Amino acid sequence: PDPPQELWVEAPPPNATFRVGEGLRLLCHARGGHPAPKLTWSKAGRPLADAPPQSRSGHVTSRALPLVATPSDNSAPYRCEAAPAHKGAPPTRSEPVRLRVL
């Protein structure tokens, strides 16, 4: 088994602000990996189980995270993680994404 070669997140620009109740979407992508990596989302270190199923197109696996902004989202670190390719290996983690919610 091989880990993904690259993991990245599509997110609003860092200076974007959102109002409570506003909808937005984060998108995680992993290139490569065999078998396809299992992608999970977390907020402030806690796994989020309600993300839609992941999809795969060619060598890229993706998983979206639709959100409705809440006060607790302000500055909370969201992170995407690809499960370890084999037992004992570390997971591949994205840089944290922090939202500005007013």
Automatic annotation (TrEMBL):
Superkingdom classification of source: Eukaryota
Pfam families: Ig_3 (PF13927)
SMART domains per record: IG (SM00409)
Domain Ig-like: 4-98
Region (Disordered): 31-102
SUPFAM superfamilies: Immunoglobulin
Name assigned to this protein: NPHN protein
Species for this entry: Cettia cetti
